[in-house]
Amino acid sequence: PEIIEHLRVEHELANISFNTWIKPLKIYDVLDDTIYILVESNASVEYIEKKYLLPLKVCIAEMLDEEYEIIFISEDDERINSIEKSRQTNVHSKKVKTAAEKAGLLPKYTFETFVVGKNNEFAYSSSLATAESPGKVYNPLFIYGGVGLGKTHLMHSIANFILENNQNAKVLYVTSETFTNEVIESLRTGRISESEPGMTKFRDKYRSADVLLIDDIQFIIGKIATQEEFFHTFNHLHSLGKQIIISSDKPPKEFEALEARLKSRFEMGLLADISSPDYETRMAILQKKIELDHLDRYKIPKDVIEYIAINIKSNIRELEGSLNKLIALYKLNNNKGDIDIELASEALKDYISPEDKREVTPELIIDIISEHYNVSISDLKSTKRNAEISYPRQVAMYLIRNMTDTPLKKIGALLGGKDHSTIKHGVDKISQDLKKDELLTNTISIIQKKINPS
Ligand code: ADP
Ligand code: MG
Predict the structure, then answer these.
(1) Residue 349 Cα to chain centre, angstroms
(2) How far is CA 258 from CA 166, 209, 228, 286, in A?
(3) How far is ligand 1, taken at its centre, from the CA of residue 320, in Å?
(4) What is the CA 424 to chain-centroid distance, rounded?
């Protein structure tokens, strides 16, 4: 109704046209980014389309801050059938959501898809043992290692495994970012009323878990309220014999500011580290990925795979990334030409850098944003306007602007050819939001640490 009212006012519609054409419109359904609007009779569809499609689109975009496709249909439109179908499959797919999906776990991260090598066999077997008897062997299990070495993959594997064996287990997987944001949020609602309903809800949620997994604990360090809340959650669950699993980019002893009491708790269970994979393991990981992602149809020559494994040493995410890049380059040539060392060296250009000292580049920022928000790089570069994509895109604009000295125009080019005013608007938007949004402030600081850990 608000949109229709907006349309009337903005476009100064005469009462008679409004009552005849606009008022009877009904939203039939919203699927992805398309709004289906039901028109009373087939005969008026064409007229309404011609006259009101554009104004309606603009109004919706203005009011919802998101662009939608609009399709007018009438009851006797054949398309109704296909909408029904996709609606049913949507509903259906929601219904069969497994417990693991509801817990926010990726189904592809399992023990079966995890390649075991010397670098991770200890972490792997401790994780498996923990998953087989949660709360019984190692508590807490503390997995640590550098970026892209498989910590998150192992955490999800444990959680997936437990849920597979017991649908009813209360398995709670969260990143420390989510944990922090929930603490902030519950303190805020708690502050408003005396009885602290926010905090109660938070505690109910975390303290009823059978298995709590917190990924990337390093990001709560120094956040006093969050650390405090975590400490109590930990003690509560631990005393009940509930399983706690923590991951971090470094061992507890390296947390300077970490209070001694937290440190000692982390160390009371088992510390398991993951280090960089050796050459054989890197080869095995590439082969596994080729198999799982059905890339065998590209018949990538063995020497090309070896070339990648030789050159990408310290980060499995980059190992996978260069394989993806290789395939993307090949497709860009319309699947012509050979997949050879030359193409591979082109693919690896973005990844090979002087060891450890990595430079903060716009490309790196875009990569990390893509990973953090789980939005593909091509979506970030697209013109899609839905908030799940456009917001991370604006965060990318903001961070590139603030962490590198890339001019607005160049940022626009890197993000799929946007003009400099779009970039400026994005940067300003995030700067404004940061002034009032504590959760965003936390998110940005975490992404910044991912980009530049020092
Ligand atoms: P971390 O959390 O330590 O930064 P991730 O668990 O996100 O790293 O791993 C990065 C990528 O590498 C993921 O896609 C993951 O599936 C993959 N990966 C890491 N270790 C392995 C492994 N041993 N076998 C197969 N894939 C792996
Ligand atoms: Mg991780």
Answers:
(1) 25
(2) 35, 24, 11, 37
(3) 9
(4) 25
Ligand 1 probe mutation, 108, 147, 149, most atoms within 8 A of CB: 149
CA dist 410 and 420 (Å) reads 8
Residues whose beta carbons lie less than 5 angstroms from ion ligand 2 = 151-152
**Which one-letter amino acid corresponds to residue 123?**
A
- Ligand 1 pocket, residue 320 CB under 6 Å: yes
Atom index in ligand 1 nearest the CA of residue 281 equals: 23
Cα–Cα distance measured from residue 151 to residue 122, given in angstroms and rounded to the nearest whole number: 12
B/e letters for 218-255, b = 16+ CB within 10 Å, e = fewer, are bbbbebeebbebbeebbebbbeeebbbbbbbbeebeeb
d(CA 127, CA 157): 8
Alpha carbons 218 and 179: distance in angstroms, whole number: 12
Contact of 316 with 145, CB cutoff 8 Å:
no
**Residue of minimum CA distance from atom 14 in ligand 1:** 317
State the amino acid at position 224 in one-letter form: I
> Per-residue pLDDT tens for 145-172?
999 999 999 999 999 999 999 999 999 9
Residue 150, marked binder = yes
Our answer on whether the CB atom of 149 is closer than 6 Å to any ligand 1 atom is: yes
**Tokens 């849920």 found at:** 163
DSSP secondary structure code for residue 143 in this structure: E
Q: Is the CB of 186 under 6 A from ligand 1?
A: no
Q: Which atom of ligand 1 is nearest to the CA of 109?
A: 16
For 244-272, give the DSSP string: EEEEESS-GGG-SSS-HHHHHHHHTSEEE
Rounded to the nearest angstrom, the distance between the alpha carbon of 187 and the centre of ligand 2 is 27
For 197-255, the pLDDT digits (tens) are: 778 889 999 999 999 999 999 999 888 899 999 999 999 999 999 999 999 999 998 88
Q: Tokens 């401790």 map to which residue?
A: 126
> Is the CB of residue 381 less than 8 Å from the CB of residue 416?
yes
237 CA distance to ligand 2 centroid (A)? 23
Rounded Cα distance between 16 and 24, Å, is: 12
Query: Residue holding tokens 């990973």?
Result: 371
**Strand pairing category for 26-31 and 34-39:** antiparallel
Does any ligand 1 atom lie closer than 6 A to the CB of residue 151? yes
pTM: 0.72
Nearest ligand (C-alpha, residue 218): 2
